[in-house]
């Protein structure tokens, strides 16, 4: 890996322009036809400026600003539904595991008629507790638009819209019943997703049948199957204080481990052919569907797919351009993903790793690292952990009001443990005799994190930076990076960094 030069990442400029347009579209409403006309004019202008590269680049950037604005307006219009004021009868399919609330059972439902998602709250009783993913329901209730509820930096309406929910409903126990529902109205993507969610439900039932501590089972469910509904608040707090929450929220780390496992099963990198590469990619995407397609996992899967394809041509594989291409695709398909906390943290972590790790790794001569594998592994772990933390720390402080003091120590524990857990989980689900080893590792991990969380000063609490302060922190980090590059070029003008 080499240090990043701005002229080498043209897709990043385009991605930033698209993001700027999406942000403008979130706060400034303009008629879609006007935006479409403006986009056409800018495209023609960009073509006419082919002799002036700088002006043409500016016109292309404005094209993507206008495109982001247009896509955002379209998505906001699609999510703005005029539901009937009174009760209506409709059919729905359960698409999430029921979560028990003080008085209700919360569950996500999908309307096969139009593909819209709703947050449903059913009166808590034995029937609602028995709901499963894929169950068809006939319901009579009033559907209400999303709430404008906000606590601190958490905007509930934006959270619902980001995840595709167009409304919510409260359902009395006598106003719903199970029924056979036709899924022909759903897209093939939704039917495929529903198939994998049903499979996940069966795997979760198998996991819950194992005799083990509830906390250990819930961590395996979160890390291997993407289901965090069984995690207790105390356990979440322990992982948050120690800086280990990223192993509970599926991300590129988990996909990287799955990818390496598939590579190992297929004989390693040297034996990878076009067919085996395709099988590996399909295996990664099967896992993405199995865990419910969260944005961070979709981003990682897209990057790994590009990585695997470019590996066949021996091209520069994991780069900022690859990350920018992934962002462009995801944001064009779902512009509101930009406001998802998982999307922001996932992309900032990967971007920071791609930018900072080459610089940090160059602190040691490459020949020395090649001949000392233990030192190379140790320093690579430090470099990746520090780089990722620089990328996400301002966002963690903004959204969650805390920073972990022992994130580096924690990563040396949780990353190897996560690798073992994800490698053993499939075997434990297929062959229960492996479950004892798997759950023992998870219990040991939980115990270690509990001890770290109990150390005084394990986390810095009460941080509440503003958006302006977060922006300035990132500006300072970028300025330090550029200053280090300039000093190194000045000190060693003939050396390539």
Main pleated sheet: 8 strands, mixed
Number of helices: 18
pLDDT average, as an integer? 85
Shape: globular
Q: Helix amount, in percent? A: 55-70%
Task: Report the strand count.
Answer: 12
The topology string of helices and strands comes to: HHHEEEEHEEEEHEEHHHHHHHHHHEHHEH
Quickly list its features.
497 residues; alpha+beta; eight-stranded mixed beta sheet; two-stranded antiparallel sheet
What is the topological layout?
Elements: H1 10-27, H2 32-48, H3 53-79, E1 88-94, E2 99-100, E3 104-111, E4 116-123, H4 126-129, E5 136-141, E6 143-144, E7 150-151, E8 154-155, H5 156-162, E9 165-171, E10 176-178, H6 188-208, H7 214-225, H8 233-241, H9 252-265, H10 274-290, H11 295-312, H12 320-333, H13 341-361, H14 366-371, H15 373-400, E11 402-404, H16 407-430, H17 435-453, E12 459-461, H18 467-491
Parallel strand pairs: 4-9
Antiparallel strand pairs: 1-3, 1-5, 2-3, 3-4, 5-10, 6-9, 7-8, 11-12
Helix pairs in contact: 1-3, 1-12, 2-3, 6-7, 7-17, 8-17, 9-10, 9-11, 9-16, 10-11, 11-12, 13-15, 15-16, 15-18, 16-17
Report on this model:
The chain is of the alpha+beta class and 497 residues long. 61% of the residues lie in helices and 11% in strands. It is built from 18 helices and twelve strands. It has helices at 10-27, 32-48, 53-79, 126-129, 156-162, 188-208, 214-225, 233-241, 252-265, 274-290, 295-312, 320-333, 341-361, 366-371, 373-400, 407-430, 435-453, 467-491; strands spanning 88-94, 99-100, 104-111, 116-123, 136-141, 143-144, 150-151, 154-155, 165-171, 176-178, 402-404, 459-461. The strands form three sheets. Strands 1, 2, 3, 4, 5, 6, 9 and 10 form an eight-stranded mixed β-sheet that branches. A two-stranded antiparallel ribbon has the order 7-8. Strand 2 and strand 3 (104-111) form a beta hairpin. The longest helix has 28 residues, at 373-400. It is globular and about 75 Å long. The model has no long low-confidence stretch (mean pLDDT 85).
């Amino acid at each position: 890996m080499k240090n990043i030069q701005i002229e080498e990442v043209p897709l990043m400029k385009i991605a930033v322009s698209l993001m700027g347009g999406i942000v403008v579209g979130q706060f400034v409403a303009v008629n879609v036809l006007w935006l479409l006309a403006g986009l056409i004019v800018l495209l023609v202008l960009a073509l006419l400026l082919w002799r002036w590269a700088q002006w043409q680049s500016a016109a292309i950037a404005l094209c993507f600003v206008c495109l982001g604005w247009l896509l955002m307006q379209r998505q906001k219009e699609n999510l703005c539904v005029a539901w009937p004021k009174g009760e209506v009868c409709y059919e729905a399919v359960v698409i999430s595991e029921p979560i028990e609330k003080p008085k209700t059972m919360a569950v996500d439902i999908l309307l096969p008629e139009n593909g819209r998602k709703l947050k449903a709250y059913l009166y808590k009783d034995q029937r609602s507790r028995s709901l499963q993913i894929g169950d068809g329901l006939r319901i009579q209730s009033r559907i209400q638009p999303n709430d404008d509820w906000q606590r601190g930096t958490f905007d509930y309406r934006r959270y619902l819209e980001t995840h595709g929910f167009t409304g919510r409903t409260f359902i009395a126990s006598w106003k719903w019943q199970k029924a056979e529902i036709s899924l022909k109205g759903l897209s093939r993507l939704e039917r495929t997703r529903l198939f994998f969610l049903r499979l996940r439900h069966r795997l979760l039932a198998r996991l819950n049948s194992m005799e083990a501590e509830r906390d250990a089972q819930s961590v395996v469910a979160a890390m291997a199957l993407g289901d965090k509904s069984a995690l207790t608040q105390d356990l979440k707090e322990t992982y948050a204080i120690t800086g280990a929450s990223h192993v509970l929220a599926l991300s590129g780390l988990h996909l990287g481990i799955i990818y390496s496992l598939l590579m190992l099963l297929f004989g390693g990198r040297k034996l990878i052919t076009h067919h085996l590469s395709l099988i590996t990619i399909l295996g990664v995407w099967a896992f993405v569907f199995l865990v419910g397609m969260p944005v961070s996992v979709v981003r990682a899967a897209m990057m790994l797919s590009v990585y695997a394809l470019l590996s066949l041509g021996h091209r520069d594989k994991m780069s900022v351009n690859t990350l920018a291409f992934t962002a462009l695709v995801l944001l064009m398909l779902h512009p509101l993903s930009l406001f998802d906390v998982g999307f922001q943290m996932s992309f900032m972590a990967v971007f920071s790793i791609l930018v900072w790790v080459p610089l940090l790794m160059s602190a040691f001569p490459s020949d020395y690292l090649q001949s000392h594998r233990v030192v190379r592994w140790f320093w690579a772990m430090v470099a990746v952990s520090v780089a990722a933390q620089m990328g996400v720390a301002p966002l963690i402080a903004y959204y969650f009001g805390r920073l972990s003091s022992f994130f580096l120590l924690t990563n040396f524990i949780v990353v190897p443990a996560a690798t073992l857990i994800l490698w053993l989980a499939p075997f434990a689900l297929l062959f229960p005799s492996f479950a004892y080893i798997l759950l023992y590792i998870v219990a040991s991990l939980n115990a270690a994190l509990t001890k770290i969380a109990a150390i005084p000063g394990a986390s810095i609490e009460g941080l509440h930076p503003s958006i302006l302060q977060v922006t300035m922190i990132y500006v300072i980090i970028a300025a330090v990076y550029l200053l280090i590059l300039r000093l190194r070029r000045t000190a060693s003008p003939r050396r390539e960094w």
